[in-house]
Design a protein that fits this description.
The structure is a single chain. This protein is α/β, with parallel strands linked by helices and 429 residues long. It has 3 domains: 186 residues, 3-Layer(aba) Sandwich (Rossmann fold); 153 residues, Nucleotidyltransferase, domain 5; 38 residues, no CATH class. Helices cover 35% and strands 21% of the residues. The chain has 17 helices and 17 strands. The strands form 3 sheets. It has an 8-stranded mixed sheet with strand order 3-4-5-2-6-7-1-8. The chain has a 7-stranded mixed sheet with strand order 9-15-12-11-10-13-14. α13 crosses α15. The C terminus is likely disordered. The structure holds adenosine-5'-triphosphate and magnesium ion.
C-alpha cells in the first residue's frame, strides 16, 4: 500500500535553525543553547523526517531516565506526528516506549537507568541523546561504540542540552577539542518564532535576577550555576510506608506546569514524590488524575492560594480538605531547608528543579534572600505541601532568656507576650 504524505510546507513548521539541521549529516550533531530555543522540538522533527523519508531506521532516543522520556519526548513525538498529519502511519506503545512507522522504521526510547533493555537493543541506525548534560562521559562512550557498522543512510548522534557547566565533559569533548566529524549548532529563544511571550519574558528577566542563569538559559553560553538553593538532597527509591504525616501540594499552571506532589514526613526527614507535572493541563484533568490515583477524599491538600476558584473546584470534586497554602516563599523555603529532603527517583521534573532552583544574585554575584522565578513549579508544590501556619510552642522563659542576650531594642517583654498571645498561630516567619 502506498501512502502519499505532503511535507511541502515543512519549512514553515520548523525554526530556521531546526530546518537547517535536517541537512546536517555529520556523525555528531551538537544542538546546544538557551532554554526554549526549540532544541527538543527540532530534534523530534528531524528524527521524524528521517523516519518518514529514509530506509532501514531504528532510531534510539535516550535520556537519563525512562520516566522522563515518557513525560517529555514521547509526548513530543505524538504532538509532531499529529501536526504533520501522519497519524495513520504510526503505532505507539507507551509501555515499551516505541513508535513504529508503517514503512518498517521505528523509534525506540530508553532511559539510561534501564541498562538491561539498553543492552538488548541492537542495530541502532542513529541516536538522539536528550538533555545530554544529565549523563556521564562513560555513558556517552558506550553509546558511541554501539553506533558502528549498521547500514542506514547516515549514522548520527544528536545531542541536545543547555550549557549548564563549563566543567562538563561535553565542553571538553566537543568544544575544547573540535573535529571535522562534528557540527555544532547554537540557538537561543530568539531563534524560536513559536515560543510564547510569557516564557520570553521569564528568560529576559533573568538578567536582573541571576547573571549566571541569564548566561546559560537566555544567552545559551557556557556557565556555572551559582546560588543553587537545594545543595543537599537525597534520591530514594520510594516514599516510606511508615510516616508521621502525609500531605499534598498543588501549584496551578497552564503554560507552566500544573504540579501535584505528595509529601510524607518522618521526624525531620521529608520525602517528596512528584505525582503530576503537565503543561496545558486544566484543573479538571488534575481532578481526574487524583481520582484515578485513588487520592483519599479527606487528604490534606494545600494549593496555590492565588487561585481560590480552582481550589473550590477541587473541593467540589470531593476533596473537601483542599485549602489555601501558606504563600510565604522565604518562610516555606527556610522550613524546607531545615529538613532532610528526600525525593523519589521517578520525580524527574522535581529533581531537575532541585538541581537548578537558585537564589537571585546581587551585583557582586552574592546570593540575595529571593529565589529566581524559574524552575519552581514542582518546588512550589513541595513548599505548599508541608509549610503552614501551625501553632508552635513558644515559652515565655525562652523569650526572656533569648532577649537577655540582645541589646534592648525598644520592646518590653510585656509587649512581646501580647504579640505571642495574639499570633498564637505564629510560625516563626
Ligand atoms: N517548530 C515548532 N513549531 C511549534 N512550536 C515549537 C516549534 N519549536 C519549538 N516550539 C515550541 O517552543 C517551545 C520551546 O521549545 P523546546 O522545548 O523544544 O525548547 P528547548 O530548546 O528544548 O528548551 P529547553 O532548553 O528548556 O529544553 C515549546 O513549547 C515548543 O512547543
Ligand atoms: Mg528541551
Amino acid at each position: 500500500m502506498t501512502y502519499n504524505i505532503d511535507l511541502s510546507n515543512i519549512k514553515d513548521l520548523m525554526t530556521p535553525k531546526g530546518y537547517d539541521m535536517l541537512k546536517v549529516e555529520s556523525r555528531y550533531l551538537i544542538s546546544y543553547g538557551g532554554s526554549g530555543s526549540s532544541k527538543s522540538y527540532s530534534a523530534t522533527q528531524k528524527i521524524l523526517f528521517r523516519i518518514l523519508t529514509e530506509k532501514n531506521h531504528r532510531i534510539l532516543v535516550l535520556r537519563k531516565t525512562a520516566r522522563s522520556l515518557k513525560k517529555s519526548v514521547f509526548q513530543l513525538f505524538k504532538e509532531v506526528i499529529k501536526i504533520w498529519n501522519v497519524e495513520e502511519l504510526f503505532d505507539y506503545n507507551l509501555t515499551d516506549l516505541t513508535i513504529t512507522c508503517k514503512n518498517g522504521n521505528s523509534i525506540i526510547m530508553n532511559g539510561l537507568d534501564n541498562v538491561e533493555r539498553l543492552k538488548s537493543i541492537s542495530s541502532v541506525s542513529s541516536l538522539w541523546l536528550e538533555e545530554a548534560s544529565e549523563v556521564t562521559y562513560q555513558d556517552f562512550i558506550q553509546l558511541d561504540l554501539r553506533l558502528r557498522g549498521y547500514n542506514a543512510s547516515y549514522f548520527q548522534l544528536l545531542l541536545t542540552f543547555n550549557p549548564t557547566s563549563s566543567n562538563s565533559w561535553l565542553k571538553k569533548r566537543f568544544f575544547d577539542n573540535q573535529d571535522d566529524k562534528t557540527k555544532v549548532v547554537h540557538s537561543t529563544f530568539l531563534d524560536n518564532p513559536f515560543l510564547d511571550l510569557e516564557y520570553k519574558d521569564i528568560l529576559e528577566s533573568l538578567i536582573s535576577q541571576n547573571k549566571n542563569m541569564y548566561d546559560i538559559y537566555c544567552k545559551g553560553i557556557w556557565g556555572t550555576l551559582k546560588g543553587v538553593i537545594f545543595e543537599d538532597y537525597q534520591v530514594v527509591s520510594d516514599l516510606p510506608s511508615i510516616y508521621d504525616k502525609k500531605s499534598y501540594g498543588v501549584d496551578f499552571g497552564f503554560q507552566h506546569f500544573m504540579t501535584f506532589i505528595e509529601a510524607r514526613t518522618v521526624g525531620s526527614d521529608v520525602y517528596f514524590k512528584e505525582l503530576y507535572c503537565k503543561t496545558e493541563s486544566l484543573v479538571s484533568d488534575l481532578i481526574a488524575f487524583m481520582k484515578e490515583e485513588g487520592i483519599a477524599e479527606d487528604a490534606q491538600i494545600f494549593a496555590d492560594s492565588a487561585r481560590p476558584d480552582l481550589i473550590t473546584s477541587i473541593q467540589n470534586a470531593g476533596f473537601k480538605h483542599c485549602q489555601k497554602a501558606n504563600k510565604s516563599v522565604l518562610g516555606g523555603l527556610d522550613y524546607m531547608l531545615s529538613l532532610n529532603i528526600k525525593v523519589t527517583s521517578n520525580s524527574t521534573n522535581l529533581i531537575k528543579e532541585l538541581d537548578l532552583y537558585s537564589w537571585s544574585l546581587d551585583s557582586n554575584g552574592e546570593p540575595l534572600d529571593k529565589p529566581v522565578k524559574m524552575f519552581d513549579d514542582c518546588i512550589d508544590s513541595c513548599r505548599y505541601s508541608i509549610f503552614r501556619n501551625e501553632p508552635i510552642q513558644i515559652s515565655i522563659a525562652n523569650i526572656t532568656s533569648r532577649r537577655n542576650n540582645y541589646n534592648y531594642d525598644g520592646y518590653d517583654d510585656k509587649e512581646l507576650y501580647q504579640r505571642v498571645a495574639v499570633n498564637n498561630n505564629f510560625s516563626g516567619y
